[in-house]
Amino acid sequence: MNALLQVRDLVVRYGARRAVDGVSFDVAAGETVGLVGPSGCGKSTTAAAVLRLLRPAAGSVRFDGTELTTLGASALRALRPRFQTVFQDPYAALSPRRRVRDQIAEPLRIHGLWSRADGPPRVAELLDRVGLDPALGERLPHELSGGQAQRVGIARALATRPELLVLDEPTSALDPSVRAGILNLLMDLQDTLGVGTLFISHDRAAVRHVCDRVLTMREGRLTA
Ligand SMILES: Nc1ncnc2c1ncn2[C@@H]1O[C@H](COP(=O)(O)OP(=O)(O)OP(=O)(O)O)[C@@H](O)[C@H]1O
């Protein structure tokens, strides 16, 4: 059976520099794979290529058998609900003037999954799922703590019921006291939802705690 995510011989260049230099790995359905390594080794660039936020110079990224690197805009748009991301800085990822409930509803609206009857209860369910009181849906991002804001980011990423989550340093902008709560939430979501996850972090201990398998990157390559 094919892996949910299959990355082969990925190369990403910034000018002459090879930020990612021949990376290959799989993430199976429901599996949590960690990607660790020092600052600048190419982790975020790998994530951006997987999410098709940039086009690699060479190599292949297959999601559920579909080649993403060459996929046209409308086919890519149709696949996007199935792979979602959570960013490092939860406040930067949320728009400052929109209520939490609208931000969680946004991916549902964008992908035509919103209805007046089912939408609001789905937003409440998502808030509850990430450990937040659904009443927080009325708030604006600046009225949330950092941990609460990251939970909103996770709820938004889960809204379309994705099969793959790409988490790029989801806890490193948070206070250490809040970090453990978010890591526990992520583990709980793995257990209950079985979402495949690529978990990027420089925090090796956190990744070991959360992941089934850990890949180490150095200077654009995976180490053996
Ligand atoms: N937009 C860009 N233009 C030019 N060079 C870039 C760009 N983004 C990243 N780089 C360079 O590519 C290399 C890999 O960066 P990347 O952000 O992928 O590493 P990282 O492992 O995620 O680092 P960090 O943990 O600090 O986020 C670094 O040398 C970085 O300076």
TrEMBL record:
<dbReference type="InterPro" id="IPR050319">
    <property type="entry name" value="ABC_transp_ATP-bind"/>
</dbReference>
<feature type="domain" description="ABC transporter">
    <location>
        <begin position="5"/>
        <end position="224"/>
    </location>
</feature>
<dbReference type="Pfam" id="PF00005">
    <property type="entry name" value="ABC_tran"/>
</dbReference>
<keyword id="KW-0547">Nucleotide-binding</keyword>
<dbReference type="InterPro" id="IPR017871">
    <property type="entry name" value="ABC_transporter-like_CS"/>
</dbReference>
<protein>
    <recommendedName>
        <fullName>ABC transporter domain-containing protein</fullName>
    </recommendedName>
</protein>
<dbReference type="InterPro" id="IPR027417">
    <property type="entry name" value="P-loop_NTPase"/>
</dbReference>
<dbReference type="InterPro" id="IPR003593">
    <property type="entry name" value="AAA+_ATPase"/>
</dbReference>
<dbReference type="InterPro" id="IPR003439">
    <property type="entry name" value="ABC_transporter-like_ATP-bd"/>
</dbReference>
<keyword id="KW-0813">Transport</keyword>
<keyword id="KW-0067">ATP-binding</keyword>
<comment type="similarity">
    <text>Belongs to the ABC transporter superfamily.</text>
</comment>
